[in-house]
Amino acid sequence: MQRRKFIQSSLAATTVAVNPALAHEKYQAQKEVYEWREYEMRFGADQGQLENYFKTALIPALNKLGVKTVGVFKEWRPSDPAKFYLLTPYASFESYISINTKLKSDADYIKNSSAYNSLPADKPLYDRFTSSLMTAFEGWPALTLPSGASRVFELRTYEAANEDALRRKIKMFHDGEFPIFTRAKLNPVFFGEVIAGDRMPRLTYMLTCSSMEERDKGWSAFVADAAWKKLVGDPQYANTISKISNTFLAPTANSQV
């Protein structure tokens, strides 16, 4: 037991040293697991029906089963057909399996999902949703809830040519990028290495700011930071990323993030 406590304390201390900006009560050695879903609505579908399913069935059930916060987002500038995004953080991979198993037999969830499940087969809300699983970075092991009512979220995805390139890019975050984000006021929500999904290997992370103007100012400050210039000039981080994509999102009225 003493050895286990020592190992846990050592892991926590190492994480705090890597990311001093997060040295507070939420720090933990256990890395969270994130499920990220993307729903592409059908043309003419009633978006309110999907949002109502999230509000009255899925989110309450996940909360009851131990998921503290569920994020629901829509595009900052809506496309046609519209898209919705769902972020579900789990304490561990075991928790992900356990909660989703219990969800299938939860009486309240089944009852509250009845309207959603009774939609006519020839009038679906969406064709399919895509899903990916991520493990949180060692240096940012848990989701950070943003403060402030008005928010714009930026979801960034980095694709790498191979697994080693992705490993080196993740190391770059741990070797100095976290505090640069903090100084630039690009407030991180989560960082995740994708372990199941498309376009592998890749990582995904989310930032948030009070406005697009603050976001633009933040990135200008980030790239001008002396620590960033030193990192990006380090040969070990050369050719780590082959493609970067980003999406701007706004929380829906029912989002808990």
Task: Write the SSE topology.
Elements: H1 2-18, E1 33-41, H2 47-64, E2 71-75, E3 83-90, H3 93-103, H4 107-112, H5 114-117, E4 126-136, E5 152-159, H6 163-183, E6 187-196, E7 202-209, H7 212-224, H8 226-232, E8 243-251
Antiparallel strand pairs: 1-3, 1-4, 2-3, 2-8, 4-6, 5-7, 5-8, 6-7
Task: Explain what this protein looks like in three dimensions.
It contains eight helices and eight strands. It has helices at 2-18, 47-64, 93-103, 107-112, 114-117, 163-183, 212-224, 226-232, and strands spanning 33-41, 71-75, 83-90, 126-136, 152-159, 187-196, 202-209, 243-251. The chain has an eight-stranded antiparallel beta barrel. The two termini are 36 Å apart.
> Sheet bearing the most strands, described?
8 strands, antiparallel, barrel
The side-by-side strand order for the widest beta sheet comes to: 1-3-2-8-5-7-6-4
* Fraction in helix: 25-40%
Enumerate how many helices there are, as a single number.
8
Radius of gyration: 19 Å
Derived structural class: alpha+beta
Strand content: 25-35%
Q: What are the secondary-structure elements, in order, as H or E?
A: HEHEEHHHEEHEEHHE
> Averaged pLDDT, please?
90
Number of strands: 8
Q: List low-confidence stretches.
A: 1-28
Shape: globular
Distance between the termini: 36 Å
